[in-house]
Write a structure and sequence with these properties.
Length: 229
């Protein structure tokens, strides 16, 4: 296929798209955390691949590293553009956001939450560490393929991946410690709220007149009072 794509055969390029559109889209989604942006990156990746087909090395081999390498660069461009747009929007008046509560989007909302959590950790990594991690771990490339995709030596891929994994492990420990602290704080808040509610209930109870019997004693005395009335 590599030679056919390099020669500009449209049928070969259509096969290339059918085979790798999914992996490219997933890779872009992990890097950006946004479905629409990932779809744009996928389209831009194949467009760039078509334009650069003549520079493709004629040797046989999987075209996946080549495509994911292009997608990685496109995703970084998209991230930079997003940061610029967010910085601009932060200076503007924020419009009222109307939430969509349609049941059919519930699954996507859950996926978005998970992606947001992943992105929060990935954003704390350096760009080169993030790229190596997504290519090796989520896109399934080996060290050689990742090196080919990024145009760096294999040793660089290994060291970047090792640093990225160590940082993510530390981030996970920090997040777990924070969750435990928040859980303890929440329990303390619940106990304080219960005590305040009990105090308010005590203050609302009517005071008993002197000598008046209450509870079971009063109920037991009722027949006696009726008979002697």
């Amino acid at each position: 296929m590599r030679k056919r794509v390099r020669a500009g055969e449209r049928d070969a390029f259509a096969e290339l798209y059918d085979q790798y559109a999914g992996p490219v889209h997933r890779h872009a989604l992990w890097l950006t955390g946004d479905w629409t942006t990932a779809e744009d990156i996928m389209s831009e990746t194949f467009l760039a691949a078509w334009r650069a087909r003549e520079r493709l090395h004629p040797d046989e081999g999987s075209l996946r590293p080549w495509l994911l390498g292009i997608a990685t660069h496109k995703a970084e461009n998209a991230r930079r553009g997003l940061r610029r747009r967010l910085a601009f929007l932060a200076r503007q008046r924020q419009p009222t956001v109307v939430a969509d509560f349609a049941p059919e989007v519930a699954g996507r909302i859950d996926d978005a939450r998970r992606l947001h959590a992943v992105q929060a950790s990935l954003d704390r990594l350096k760009r080169h560490e993030r790229e190596v991690l997504t290519l090796c771990v989520w896109s399934g490339l080996d060290y050689q393929q990742t090196a080919e995709a990024l145009g760096v030596p294999i040793g660089t891929v290994r060291s970047r991946l090792s640093r990225a994994r160590a940082k993510l492990a530390r981030f996970a420990d920090e997040a777990a410690a924070q969750e435990r602290a928040e859980g303890r704080a929440e329990k303390r808040g619940e106990k304080r709220a219960e005590k305040r509610a009990e105090k308010r209930a005590d203050n609302r109870e009517p005071r008993t007149a002197r000598g008046e019997m209450t509870g079971e004693a009063a109920l037991a005395a009722l027949p006696v009072r009726e008979e002697t009335a």
